Amino acid sequence: MNVKVRFAPSPTGSLHLGAVRTAIFNYLFAKKNNGKILVRIEDTDKERSSNESLIEILESLRWLGLDWDEGPIKQSNRLEIYKAAADKLIDEDLAYRCYMTQEEVNLLKDKAKAENKVYKYPNTWREKKENPNGRDFVIRFKTPYQTKINFNDTLRGNITIDSSTLDDFIIIKSDGFPTYNFASALDDAEMGITNIIRGEDHLSNTPKQVLIFNSIKKKLPNFTHVSMILGKDKTKLSKRHGAESINSFKEKGYLPISIINYLARLGWAYGDQEIFTLNEMISNFSLDNLSKSPAVFDSEKLSWVNNIQIKNYPNSELKERLKLEFIDGVDEELAINAVKEKNKDLNELQKSLNFCLLTNESYENELINELDNQAVSELKKFIIVWEEKKPKEIEEIKEVFTNYLNENEIKMKSLALPLRILLTGTKSSPGIFEILKILGHEIVIERIKKFIKNNEK
Ligand code: GLU
């Protein structure tokens, strides 16, 4: 059978790490099995759903490169389909209209609370034949009495639930919108989803969805409920743990592959390997290797993964992604290689490259203004030798530079530091020999001359 999975976000906020990890597992599973991916927008909670959130979620998925084959399909555009399906269930005596008012429900809830019981709808309208016209109603599913509900979960094996633990749950709300359990199960059945991979928080919904599948006589898909992601203190992951929306990770200079690698590895293992390319993840992915126990989010490890992925990232793609525009004559490859080693994120990396980018002509700053007369006179002497010798390759640069220091009995630091500041505007740039090579002879001379001129006035 051809594999078809779905990613079904509710547009009630930005895309969070847990949801992204679910999307990643679906993606890897589909790609591994030459399957198809459908995106379905579960926007049946009118109050909480928003278009901004929908746009942000889709943008984040696209940014991550988690592309899909079908959709996005919005459930709010399919209301007629859910209504017709519910009406059919009523005709078949598998569902019914319930006219219980909100006040009546509230009274029952208060009563249960006073008696220290959990509220459960008492199936009041299950067998009633009257039809109070004009009154609001919901449609409830007739949960069969004394039935075992069975399904299989990849990670947990066979699960059996007694139907007495469920009530006659609502499938269509009074506003005409379907509930999540109804719309989701109906769509999964109709859209031919073969594998449902989602968060463990939905495990308690699955028996209701199994009942829906059974009622419309559709074969159950395979279920895989993946463990939750927790913060280091073992509580539910939140902003407090540094886990924000994907958008914020994008802004903080993470590469999509770093997020995919880190999240996939969180709860999925392939030996001890930590760093993966996308293709490696796809070819080695298996649902059986997912962990049942909760995963713990570690922002430092994510940052470590990002650093390594940045190092592995092709320079040409990095240049394109960051829209880097180098000053003419700069050794671009060396510049990128030099800063890649040190930087944990793309923002830092871009900042470290400022000294050789067109976009930052004014790399000069207070540090340069603070250089003293001593530095000016050092550089005046240095530039004479440098102009004359014109060293080009890194070995030559090293040699001319070191000879100059030795012959003039100057300490490395007394020349390298002012020169580094002058050429890059920072104290923490690549090594001085690399800077000289990256910028090239002409830019170096030009910058030193300009500095001397400015300080002679
Ligand atoms: N819309 C649900 C959510 O965002 C997903 C439900 C599912 O995957 O079945 O949590």
Write a structural description.
It is a single chain. This protein has three domains: 4-76 and 229-303, HUPs (Rossmann fold); 78-226, HUPs (Rossmann fold), CATH 3.40.50; 313-457, Arc Repressor Mutant, subunit A (Orthogonal Bundle). It is 47% helix and 11% strand. The chain is built from 18 helices and twelve strands. A three-stranded parallel β-sheet has the order 1-2-3, covered by helices on one side. It has a three-stranded antiparallel β-sheet with strand order 4-5-8. Strand 1 (4-7), helix 1 and strand 2 (36-41) form a beta-alpha-beta unit. The site of glutamic acid has 7 residues, from loops.
Any chance you could write out the topology, listing elements then pairs?
Layout: E1 4-7, H1 17-32, E2 36-41, H2 51-64, E3 70-74, H3 79-91, E4 95-98, H4 102-114, E5 138-141, E6 148-153, E7 157-162, E8 170-172, H5 180-190, E9 195-199, H6 206-215, E10 222-226, E11 229-230, H7 246-251, H8 256-265, H9 278-284, E12 295-296, H10 299-312, H11 315-321, H12 332-342, H13 346-353, H14 366-369, H15 373-389, H16 394-408, H17 412-424, H18 432-456
Parallel strand pairs: 1-2, 2-3, 9-10, 11-12
Antiparallel strand pairs: 4-5, 5-8, 6-7
Helix pairs in contact: 1-9, 5-6, 8-10, 12-18, 15-18, 16-18, 17-18
This protein binds glutamic acid.
CATH superfamily of the largest domain: HUPs
Assembly state of the chains shown: single chain
The overall pLDDT, averaged over residues, is 92
Through-space gap between termini: 81 Å
CATH structural fold name of the largest domain? Rossmann fold
